[in-house]
Design goal:
single chain, two-stranded antiparallel ribbon, 6 helices
């Protein structure tokens, strides 16, 4: 009952098309399918893999591997993803951080989160941001994944 009242008072509205959603996210299923998902990228550095390669990492990473095991790259940085990033950083659209965090959690859980012993490090690219954007995304992801 409380959930229904909450949904009535604070409905989920898609951050792209502004339609009401029933998905429990501020992202409708149509807009979610239209996002520029990463596709075939190196699991270490995120660069696109050339077609025909039967590997999960690129030649550079095989020769000189980075100091971490795996990268989770959700999207190419292009519209409409730029709207989410810029809205969170400069427009104080906190729901955008929740959407990105939930999408990251879904991807991590689906692809390689197996033993619930996972850390979610991020580069400190947004250290000059008014909001701590990367921390907001990680906190939503951690909440979804039930990681402390």
């Amino acid at each position: 009952m409380l959930k229904k009242v909450e949904q009535w008072l604070l409905p989920f509205i898609c951050c792209f098309c502004e339609a009401y959603t029933t998905s429990g996210q501020d992202l409708c299923s149509v807009c979610k399918m239209a996002l520029p998902w990463s596709g075939d990228r190196c699991f270490k550095c995120g660069l696109y893999l050339t077609s025909g390669i039967d590997s999960i990492d690129c030649e550079s990473c095989r020769e000189l591997p980075p100091k971490f095991d795996r990268l989770c790259s959700l999207f190419s940085y292009q519209p409409p993803i730029t709207k989410l990033v810029m809205g969170l950083k400069f427009g104080k659209k906190l729901a955008y951080g929740r959407v990105m965090g939930e999408l990251l959690a879904d991807q991590v859980e689906a692809q390689w989160y197996q033993n619930r012993n996972c850390s979610l490090p991020l580069d400190r690219l947004s250290h000059k941001c008014h909001l701590n954007c990367d921390q907001r995304i990680v906190s939503f992801s951690s909440h979804c994944l039930k990681v402390a």
